[in-house]
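Long-time lurker, first post. I've been practising inverse folding by hand and with some scripts of my own, and I keep getting stuck on stretches where the structure tokens seem ambiguous. Below is the full token string for one chain I'm working on. Before anyone asks, I'm not after the true native sequence, just a reasonable design that respects the backbone. If someone could post their per-position residues I'd love to compare against what I wrote down in my notebook.
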């Protein structure tokens, strides 16, 4: 009897899922077209792309960076706006992005430890996607948008770079990290120029 066909690829399969590994060891997993919800400030140690059964990676130099949620899921993300450091920590906010381990013949592709294992966090709330480049160049035809939405609970950075006073007319709800306790009355923050 013959086994199921095997596909070795550099690009993402339409059913590629995502696992987010937090610095505290917790994990969040979503299938393609799903979402992962995190709180702003939660530190992520690694991102893993999960191919469906029968599909395997063969990559060297692959990278991942964070982009706006408007990037078409499963489409080319070469021209998608890369999020800046006011939204997400390096290396996801850097032009080159986070480097993946070199993989041959595995169904899971994992980033190298982010910031030497200390992790990186989204600094503001919103909906975002990840842009994958199999050769790390993010050139036309070499990118795919991961089909999982990252929904980050926290303050939105729509005023980033717009000068003092931009946030003064907005109301913000306070959010806390799950299973963490804050001091009474601590739900507040200073907004210069507001």
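-- Answer (accepted) --
I ran through it position by position. Result:
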């Amino acid at each position: 009897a013959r086994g199921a066909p095997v596909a070795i690829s550099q690009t993402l399969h339409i059913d590629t899922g995502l696992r987010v590994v937090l610095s505290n060891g917790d994990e969040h997993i979503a299938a393609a077209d799903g979402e992962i919800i995190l709180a702003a400030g939660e530190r992520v140690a690694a991102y893993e792309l999960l191919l469906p059964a029968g599909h395997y990676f063969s990559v060297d130099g692959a990278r991942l960076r964070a982009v706006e949620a408007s990037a078409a899921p499963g489409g080319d993300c070469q021209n998608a706006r890369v999020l800046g450091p006011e939204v997400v920590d390096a290396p996801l906010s850097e032009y080159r992005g986070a480097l993946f381990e070199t993989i041959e013949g595995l169904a899971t592709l994992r980033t190298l430890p982010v910031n030497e294992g200390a992790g990186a966090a989204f600094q503001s709330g919103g909906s975002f996607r990840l842009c994958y480049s199999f050769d790390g160049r993010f050139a036309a035809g070499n990118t795919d948008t991961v089909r999982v939405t990252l929904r980050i609970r926290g303050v939105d950075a729509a005023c980033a770079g717009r000068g003092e006073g931009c946030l003064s007319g907005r109301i913000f709800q306070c959010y806390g990290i799950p299973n963490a306790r804050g001091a009474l009355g601590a739900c507040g923050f200073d907004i210069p120029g507001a």
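A couple of notes from the structure itself: The mean pLDDT is 82. Residues 7-153 form one domain. Happy to go over any region you disagree with.
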